[in-house]
Design brief:
Layout lengths: L5 H21 L4 H20 L9 H14 L17 H42 L5 H10 L6 E5 L1 H11 L3 E3 L4 E3 L13 H12 L4 E6 L10 E9 L9 E8 L1 H8 L1
Parallel strand pairs: 1-4
Antiparallel strand pairs: 2-3, 4-6, 5-6
Helix pairs in contact: 1-4, 2-3, 5-6
Amino acid sequence: PGTSREIDGVIFTLLSLGLFAFMATLLIKKPIALFFYIFCTGEIILFTYIKFLGAARHYGHLYIVLIAALWIASYYPKSSLLFELFRKIPPYLKSVLRAWAKFVEKHKNTLLMIILFAQLAGGIVAFSRDLLIPYSASREAARYIQSKQLEQMFIVGSRDANISPISGYLNRKIYYPERHGMGSFVLFNGQRKDVDAVTALEQVSQIIKQEHKVLLILNYELKTAKPDLNIVLLTKFTKSFIGNEKYYLYQVKATTNLVRDIKN
């Protein structure tokens, strides 16, 4: 849905609506399964467009909802309850719907097998790719931090949404400049604001007055400096399929001038 190419949006919108109509028709004789399918699919789409657009990897729940709906449908007997709603429609429209229902009934197994085989092929590709390159570098970065006992330091991480996996592996909170405070998972609320490197370093400057040194974790290479901070790149982890979950670890200390100012 976030594509910048209008033709892609049109084509995949039509395909999505067609698939949704096909599956809704397939489940029309199972009202409970149909309600589950429509409600859960609508809820996910509503959340997607209102709260978090996400990426292609976030839409797998739609496939799970479909499989669950078909599973529920296999449990309940057929019902003609919903067909009563179509009794008063015009004859020509009724014939169109009847023809569509026959088409769905005829090709349901074919479409389901296409979906299942497509998921199987995608799973094999994803699994094979994961053997060669990790999906995220967060685990490797967390292991390095633990092996060097860097988790004892005060940790600042930005961008919070991409640093939060490291927080999970370390089982400890991290200071997120986006929320101006400590946290583990990300809170997408009114208080959270994305920050750039300059703003993040400004907050580190305030923290460094209380802490001896800081471990700064960024999901991008730092290309700016600050006179009152001595920033040293410890290591980087760039072997990651997800581009925004590559990590750069910096040790930050106060410069001599700042230490003198603090003492004074």
